[in-house]
Specification:
Structural class: alpha/beta
Helix content: 40-55%
Shape: globular
Mean pLDDT: 95
Strand content: 5-15%
Number of helices: 8
Radius of gyration: 17 Å
Strand order of the largest sheet: 3-2-1-4-5
Low-confidence stretches: none
Number of strands: 5
Length: 198
């Protein structure tokens, strides 16, 4: 019997994929670097900023000494975009409310840091509906490692066979499957509604 529903954040509950792409590029362009939309969508989407910057250093020559500064700038730009563009989605709030009425445990497991996650989820009206939030700061290995989903299941007191994960990205889907949970794949936040209960 299913007891818990775990959601990814970006691309599932919040349409922030473009915000992350734009914020990272704005931060990189200060230092003469950038990434293409194709590279972001096909490889970087769903990764931590740290992992993206490591790849850019190892494969494209971005100086590693810039990582901390770029991360700070990217964080600032992301929060500014979220403050302007992040609003409650009625379909999501109805779904989460119904899940709580049915006594499901509800959590978000994200590759983002806690500050960004709480900020966006609060703006979207979602945070108060969660039993748990797991971020990349809570685990040693973020997605595609299953650590975040395994930690969420442990804290919620449920097994993999009692858990459904709603994911959109290749890294998150891989993590959820590695954790042993049932996986519902969506393409974007518009697919997240009461119909998922079916």
């Amino acid at each position: 019997m299913i007891k818990a529903i775990l959601f990814d954040r970006d691309g599932v509950l919040i349409d922030a994929t473009e915000w992350h792409y734009e914020a990272l590029n704005e931060s990189l362009e200060i230092f003469g670097f950038s990434i293409s939309r194709e590279l972001h969508e096909n490889r970087f989407n769903g990764m931590t900023t740290r992992a993206k910057l490591e790849i850019l250093s190892n494969e494209f020559g971005l100086p590693k000494g810039l990582h901390s500064l770029i991360s700070q700038i990217k964080q600032d730009r992301t929060l500014r975009k979220a403050a302007q563009l992040c609003f409650p989605n009625a379909s999501h709030l109805i779904l989460l409310s119904r899940l709580k009425q049915l006594n499901f445990k509800v959590a978000v497991v994200t590759n983002s840091i806690r500050q960004t996650s709480e900020f966006m989820l609060e703006y979207a009206g979602i945070l108060r509906n969660l039993d748990l939030l797991v971020t990349n700061e809570d685990v040693d290995n973020p997605k595609p490692s299953p650590d975040g989903y395994l930690l969420a299941m442990k804290k919620l007191g449920v097994s993999a066979s009692e858990t459904i994960v709603v994911e959109d990205g290749i890294h998150g889907i891989k993590a959820a499957k590695a954790a042993g949970a049932f996986v519902v794949e969506v393409k974007n936040p518009s697919e997240v509604s009461l119909q998922l209960l079916d």
